[in-house]
From TrEMBL:
Protein name according to UniProt: Glycosyl transferase
Source species: Winogradskya consettensis
Key words, A-Z: Membrane, Transferase, Transmembrane, Transmembrane helix
Positions of the UniProt region annotated as Disordered: 1-20
First and last residue of the signal peptide: none
Keyword field contains Membrane: yes
A GO term, aspect molecular function: transferase activity
Transmembrane segments: 29-48, 115-139, 196-213, 219-236, 248-268, 321-339, 346-364, 384-409, 421-439
Presence of the UniProt keyword Transmembrane in the record: yes
Amino acid sequence: MPTIEEEVSPAPAEQLTPEPRTRRGLGSLWALLSYPVLAVVVMIQLWISPSGRVLASNDDDHGFFLFVLAHGERVVFHGDNPFFTDRMNVPDGVNLMANTSVLALTVPFAPITHFFGPGLSLVLLLTLGLAGTAAAWWWVFTRHLVRSRRAAWIGGLWCGFAPAMVSHANGHLNFVAQFVVPFIVWQVLRLREPGRIVRGGVTLGLLVVVQVFLNEEVLLFTAMALLVFVVAYACFNLAQARDVARRFLLGLGVAGVTALALLAYPLWWQFSGPQSYSGQPFEPGKFVTDLFAIGAYARQSLAGNGAIARTLSVSPTEDDSFWGVPMLVMLVVCGVMLWRNLAARAAMIAGFVLLIASLGPRLRVGGVDTGIPMPFALVQHVPIIDLVSVTRFAMVPTTLIGVLLALACDRVPALGPRRQVAFWLGMVAAVVPVLPKPLPVVDAPPLPPFVAQGIWREYVDQDETIVTVPLPEVTTGRTGMRWFALTGLDYPVPRGYFMGPANSSDRTGSWNAAPRPTADLLRIAGAYGRRPVISEADRSAAFEDLAYWRASVVVLTPDAPNRELMASILTELLGFAPKEVGGVQLWDLRGMLHPTG
């Protein structure tokens, strides 16, 4: 009875010429070096100035991950709670287990953050995430699935640098770092082997723990893909499924017990701890894959077109499919070549099911909601599934394309000479147009002396905050969030960009801190450039809010939109004019407020 390894093995071994060990070693070295080189090319513009530039397509998440990297440094060097911080969103704090805090990266890289700053840590981790994901898949391919180094390299290249991965490299560190996924997949499949119940289960459980501290959403996608794959494979081969079912399920049980034993306390923090929440601030079917996006090119691909991609995609960070028509043709070719392999066929089914899920509850075509119902409508409100952005389900078939490409490339020696030439020409036509371009960046405003030279320390005691205006929120106040992160969270701040409960009585997830009158007034005035009529009630609310935030000073950032208007509004609210200190306008509140809870 064939095993999965035997089914996905390439053409007969005699058709592959053995190579000397030295040549194989050099080939492996070249393959592993090519991935980080390409990753540096993708991130090169941020490497030029890690702390002075931000990713142009996603400066919000860029600032958030600077923050979590700085938090990781405080965990190691200051003994802060890894699952919670009181440095942001004062006085309520932020539940970091309920946010994408990537502790599996921020804590180990704390020394780099401490000595070189979170900017360098971020670009380094984004680079290593792309290269590491490619290399991890390459390792699994070469050790377990294919004999051809070329096939393994192509598969790894696609898995690490597919449009979805490059798109998420625009600040989504949690989605770029997928180097644990191939090992989880392989350990799950190995549970069917004799003698793997305990050893394999414990190993899998530990890998799951690591992935939880990288990205739980990717873990969910991986679990769903494996579920569909295992069910499909079992249907194709019932005899083998019956033979291995007992030890496979027992191994999963050991893995579950291992993972839960280590994750019980962190998961309690996530779902029941302070500032925990439930649900998302949007309907599960809001962000979906457009059907035309499957055959289009992402804006960061060599053949990409920004205008077309904007029509078909939620944002530059969510180009989760965008494979191009030539790749769709090659997938048909690969499907024909591999159809007799039950494992490859099961992988195709898993990819198709998750692709259909990514289309959401109603079919969208060319930017138009057709109203045609899709299967996802039946499960969109199922707990856990309702926590994800639906378009990201397309990341699963994207990765499985890499697996199918590796397997198909490994079968090429069995083809005739003309078919081999046709296959490789088709592969070039499919892969080259989707190769990535360097991600765009913009120069960030330089830190004013008030921040860079630590002048703020003269104005802020240990438990007091600096209120930067615009206040740090989702899509606004990026400068204040960046100052806060680049100083290593040395001073606390109110509000911020994070996920938390909508307010004290509503635990629905929100990207904004609980509403406060002054925050709303300043946000609307800054966004629309309209001067509000300031009443005594507004002045009273301002002092109440500032006391609630434990404010020591209010600072208007030099790049604030409608800066003169905002300075005038703050002066009218607070009743006195600011002074220029270290390149910023500052309202000194020391001795004026009585903190409230």
